[in-house]
Amino acid sequence: MDRKEIRETIGVTALVLSLIFVGLEMRQNTRLLQAQTRDAITSKQLETVSWVATDQQNSRVFRVGWDSMETLTPDEEWQYATLVQGIMREWENSHYQAGLGLFTREEIEARQEAWCQNMISSSGFRDVWDQQRLRYAASFRAVIDNFVADAESFEQGASNSEWRDGILVSQCLDA
Description:
This protein is mainly alpha-helical. It contains 6 helices and 2 strands. α3 runs antiparallel to α4 (105-121) and α4 (105-121) crosses α6. The longest helix has 51 residues, at 3-53. The N and C termini lie far apart (64 Å).
């Protein structure tokens, strides 16, 4: 090999090693971004939960609204709807982040199962969804609409979901 071939070989080798290094850095950055995303979403969830868990009035409104918004005053109904919309906005954000690959399939399916159980268990959540669904992205609406359909089937006795020992076992993700 002459000097020119040696330089070309060294140059190609350096380029390949650089590309491998960039690939490894991108992979590490993706993991870091996934961790930061999960941490941010968890912080938002804890903040949302604290609205209800640390204030007796908010807790009462949420508990009553969960079963039915009919007995809430107009101000309480607005308060409940606003809280539920905040929760659903967090769900939509998780859905969006999952679409970007920032959640594993196992993680997003666990979240979706919880969303489904909320939609089946709470007529208040379904009422807010019916009133506000067009404010959310179409792909997210399709997911929640599927859960609402399962909730309606559940109420009519035609769903695969069932109560076992006080826990709702749904088949939302199998549909």
